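ok trying this again, last paste got cut off
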Amino acid sequence: MAGKPKLHYFDGRGRMESIRWLLAAARVEFEEKFLETSKDLEKLRNDRSLMFQQVPMVEIDGMKLAQSRAILSYIAAKYNLYGKDIKKRALIDMYIEGVADLNEMIILLPLSPPNEKGTKITQIKESAANRYFPAFERVLQSHGQDYLVGNTLSRADVHLVELLYSVEELDPGILANFPLLKALKTRISNVPTVKKFLQPGSQRKPPGDETRFEKVIKIFQ
């Protein structure tokens, strides 16, 4: 019997957080091996565990998968979160790319110089409120079903809800004009394993702070 997936990354959100979210939504328990020093990263490289010399890396089903998109695609396909036909997958991929555009700005935010952070936060909130959230609200309104692609939970829903939480940390009232997104967030948050993941002390990581990310930069230099 295969063991739990093992996630190799630093003790923070970054590019691993979406993988943690997707595993939680798939009801899969996982282990984490945190990189605490540059020697930890160097060991993985010397062991040839990192195909492209970088993390995130996930050990799953006898593989050492690198590249976050490949990891997410495998998990989604394995646990039936990636649509049942090519058209549904195309829609899911399109929605994911939209989420990724905004999520990338959030991932990089803790690494921004202090004098630029306010401007970047404003850009994120304006992009969310005026471009991305209205688009996803229209998708849900257009078909009146529970999820972005019909009535079946997919990775697109999970990634979107992760994004909603992240943007709400910057602007707690941003979903006031998006009732369908708010309902989607509630629906997915009530999935038992996601609900557990959202509790304090879980494997979900808190928002990035400068102290932690200064340490991370040293690890990856």
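PB: full thing came through this time. The chain has a mean pLDDT of 93.
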